[in-house]
Amino acid sequence: MGRQPCCDKVGLKKGPWTAEEDKKLISFILTNGQYCWRAVPKLAGLLRCGKSCRLRWTNYLRPDLKRGLLSEYEEKMVIDLHAQLGNRWSKIASHLPGRTDNEIKNHWNTHIKKKLKKMGIDPITHKPLPNATEQTQNQPKQQQLHQPLEEEQNQQPLQVDFDHKVDPNKEPEISLESSTTTEAREEDQIIATPQFDTMELNQLVNNGFCTDEVPIIEPNEILMPCAPSSSSTSSSSSSNSTNILQDLQLPDFEWCCDYSDSSLIINNNNHEDKNSNNSGMALWDDDDFISKLNWLINEDDDCDGNQVFDGSLTQFSRMVTDSESWAFGLF
DNA sequence: AACTTCCTCAACCGCCAGGCT
DNA sequence: CAGCCTGGCGGTTGAGGAAGT
């Protein structure tokens, strides 16, 4: 039927990923970095196509991902960005650090779309539906369900004010009727808008944390000591967020957004007894995993008898340097 | 408790754009 | 410039869990 599959699917596994597969992929990418995805499954000993590996990594395994529901502010940003960009989920996602296009797309289709419809707003055009007034009047329960967001949307002018100086104590101003005025905006203008730091976003909306965030990798498992700098994270964490971090007994940290950064240090606080000096490192709080990781990394051959980390890797453009490998504490 | 329906979201599919030869 | 390869994107699907009957 026309197009050839992206790869030879004979014998390739499909469907949900197992923990073991995840571990193989994680260990491989942490060791070798991201390069030719087509080669990854073979080299990592996975019976998956490269595309599947890439998707799994970018949508689920990446350490810098936020998990859990979008915060109200993120949701508002999505709505506003969607009004400007349409279904360009990757563009929208690029404005929401730690969120993937897939996640945003899903959230849009399952939550925001319905919410907008019930508010009498066409989720495609972002304009009021013809029978909007009737609908909104007939939805008192829904109003109660999402009171904070909708109150704001009804009361405030309609645009994420990217330019205004963010006041951590003040809910950002967002409105919903921007489509007509903003649809024609140049995309580069949109992209030029300030990027909000993941933590900052949450601080703005939820005083530091979205309570239903459930990172796939716990924050205290992937921690980078955050040098007291003038970064947006630290500068914006003036009051509430800092307190919350302290309350949680977490150190200042940043999600590891660039694992190629050779200065990366990972602090596993769950093992304070072992690693109290921040030098002990374990990405995942799982001794079994670590031992398996070591096994995976140290073994010359995978279960299929393929060379896992043979010299041919040097042909690829992206290799993790020794220092990077050490930084991950894998060797 | 058993069954059905609804909902969510991880994963897949096919297409497209860009880089390379 | 054409053809190939790869990564990325957006639409769609379907398994599994939640909610309803």
TrEMBL record:
Q: Where is the signal peptide?
A: none
> Where are the compositionally biased (Low complexity) regions?
134-147
Alphabetized GO MF terms: transcription cis-regulatory region binding
Ranges for domain HTH myb-type: 9-61, 62-116
Region called Disordered, residue ranges: 122-187
Q: Provide the alphabetized UniProt keywords.
A: DNA-binding, Nucleus, Repeat, Transcription, Transcription regulation
**Chief location:** nucleus
Basic and acidic residues compositional bias: what residue ranges?
161-173
- The record places domain Myb-like at 9-61, 62-112
Q: Which GO terms describe its cellular component?
A: nucleus
A GO term (biological process) for this protein?
regulation of DNA-templated transcription
Q: Where in the cell is it found?
A: Nucleus
Name of the molecule in the record: Uncharacterized protein
User: What organism is listed for this UniProt entry?
Assistant: Phaseolus coccineus
Recite the lineage of the species: Eukaryota, Viridiplantae, Streptophyta, Embryophyta, Tracheophyta
